[in-house]
Design a protein that fits this description.
312 residues, Immunoglobulin-like, Arc Repressor Mutant, subunit A, nine-stranded mixed sheet, four-stranded antiparallel sheet, 24% helix, elongated
């Protein structure tokens, strides 16, 4: 797995050096807001990375944050140097106060729970709401499908099974549903075996301790997220084609099936859906499987019929 991550990082770095161009900045006093990355997780938590450029040396500088960080998660760094900072609040807004920052690029990273909320109309639906004064990259959890899409966007694509959106500055509300994960099967109990008699082991040379695997993954993941953000924004500026895959969002047929189920009290047969909506059976079957995959409906076989039930 570590080798795989390193390979992905190498590929992304190669693309970065080939495609990187200047990103038009947003000016705010003594800083330039370059871009924001919102890395969304299945539980609704979001890892926020804000990249800014410091334009002058000051005793400290206050960087406006997209949301309130969770306790003890705010980190600011320049290159490999971690800088002293604290969370301050002004007029209901939150800022990262960074002390003695150097001129150049500065990263602000934190975890927040304030950007997402779980809906009630569509099962397993989440909504992320935020406001940004610069380009923003949103990376949704793996197995997500969009139920609403902003009118303005620079690019929508899928990377390693995760929906990625690039948005210009503005206020946004984006909804998505998550694929239902299969339940883990309980492990079978293993009968203990009699231990063989101990054997003499020849002494070995001491080895240097390896860094914890969690640390390795964290560093690699951070590098991947930041590099993907820069590449994606760069490609967006070059008018990247938007992915046309219907797997990234709910289609009109998906919504028609959901609305018809609501009209029928939440339950009906698959054949009735096809007949009423005037759609081929194969088309309805394909969309039924898609909605089932994301936990929006349940399918139960009763005799020769498939009973489709809207999950409450």
């Amino acid at each position: 797995m570590v080798v795989r991550y390193r390979l992905e990082v190498f590929i992304l770095i190669t693309l970065l050096t080939t495609l990187l161009c200047t990103i038009p900045p947003t000016l705010t006093g003594s800083i330039t807001e370059k871009y924001v990355v919102l890395d969304v997780y299945r539980d609704g938590s979001v890892v926020v990375t804000q990249v800014v450029e410091i334009k002058e040396e000051l005793p400290y500088i206050d960087i406006p944050l997209v949301a309130k960080p969770e306790k003890d998660t705010l980190v600011t760094y320049s290159g490999t140097l971690v800088l002293a900072c604290e969370l301050v609040s002004k007029d209901g807004r939150y800022f990262a106060r960074v002390y003695a920052p150097s001129i150049g690029v500065l990263n602000v990273t934190y975890i927040t729970l304030d950007l997402t909320s779980k809906g009630i109309e569509v099962p397993n639906e989440w909504t992320i709401r935020f406001s940004s004064k610069c380009d923003t990259v949103i990376v949704l959890p793996k197995g997500s499908i969009l139920t609403s899409i902003p009118e303005r966007f620079s690019a929508i694509t899928s990377v390693s099974g995760r929906v990625m959106l690039v948005l210009p500055p503005g206020n946004y509300s984006i909804s998505y549903v998550l694929e239902v994960l299969p339940e883990a099967m309980p492990a079978k109990p293993i009968k203990p075996k009699k231990a063989p008699p101990p054997e003499e082991v020849p002494p070995t040379k001491p080895t240097k301790p390896r860094p914890p695997i969690e640390t390795t993954y964290l560093v690699l993941a951070l590098v991947v997220v930041v590099i993907i953000a820069v590449i994606t924004i760069t490609l967006a500026r070059r008018r990247v084609r938007v992915s046309s895959s219907t797997e990234l969002m709910l289609s009109d047929v998906d919504r028609a099936i959901i609305n018809y189920l609501r009209m029928r009290g939440g339950e009906t047969t698959q054949s009735e859906i096809a007949s009423t909506l005037g759609l081929p059976k194969s088309t309805v079957s394909r969309h039924i499987q898609k909605l089932r995959k994301y936990g929006i409906i349940e399918v139960k076989k009763v005799g020769k019929f498939n009973i489709i039930k809207l999950v409450r």
